[in-house]
């Protein structure tokens, strides 16, 4: 990683006027520009986007869902909706990876087009990253849709304890009935309107520029991923029971793919029998693709708040917080 001058002026942040006669310390930049990244991961390489910050609080690993790429988390239509921009301003650097099978690793071998192999590949990529970059307090995984399933595999892995926690949106325990691609009896969408309703929901839930620019976001889905997706409800209970880090799951108010009523959310949370903390939430005004919608900023702020709770939990558990002297009473 290129060196950062810690005394550089931060011209993009609010600066309070100093008191008379006082020279304030020069401030570090909130973030550098988002940049492309390519990480060796065994016999593959994973591409993605990286939002670095000096001395990060931790590193958020963002994992997109099916049929899109890492720019899902960096909304070009409105910078305020970008996870990378918002998290960096809060002191968290973000590594948004193109999942195994996407972009740089589109030539993924058929034997590796599955979630267990994907988890191994991602762990190797994170090892490469950590060898040359500061990680901060640790890895926090923020994922969407099929990326949540990969995140759960990462957390259920033998190395899952290396994670501060995982935050997922758009994935659950059981699919809604009649979903094309998941239900063999479902009818394929026939019109552009039906395609939009299936994959995006109501256009009013997105900034106009998102839908106009979506061709730069969309990617082909590998055959192995498409074949594996319907098996998730059967695989989920055992995997969830092996997760030993904090978990937060969010369902959109206008979720198109998953059963997401209160009873289902509670049952999903109960499956994480070994996790020290499990939270569920419903995101008002959001479609399945929450990080591209008008609700993105609200959701990302809530996810960052959860990341901070996970960071605090880790620091308390490891005794890294400064101790204050006990108050004295005269």
Q: How would you describe the overall organization of this protein?
A:
By secondary structure, the chain is α/β, with parallel strands linked by helices. The chain has one domain: Rossmann fold (3-Layer(aba) Sandwich). It has nine helices and eight strands. The chain has helices spanning 83-89, 115-132, 146-156, 192-199, 208-212, 223-228, 232-241, 262-270, 296-318; strands at residues 35-41, 44-51, 59-63, 93-97, 139-144, 163-169, 247-254, 278-287. An eight-stranded mixed beta sheet has the order 1-2-4-3-5-6-7-8, with helices on both faces. Helix 2 crosses helix 3 (146-156) and helix 3 (146-156) packs parallel to helix 7. The chain is globular. It starts with 34 loop residues before the first strand and ends in a 12-residue tail after the last helix.
Query: Please, what is the average pLDDT?
Result: 88
Number of domains: 1
Give the CA-CA distance, first to last residue.
54 Å
**For the report, how would you describe the main beta sheet?**
8 strands, mixed
CATH C-level class is Alpha Beta
Fraction in helix: 25-40%
Strand order in the largest sheet: 1-2-4-3-5-6-7-8
Gross morphology: globular
The CATH topology label is Rossmann fold
Q: Beta-sheet strand percentage?
A: 15-25%
Number of strands: 8
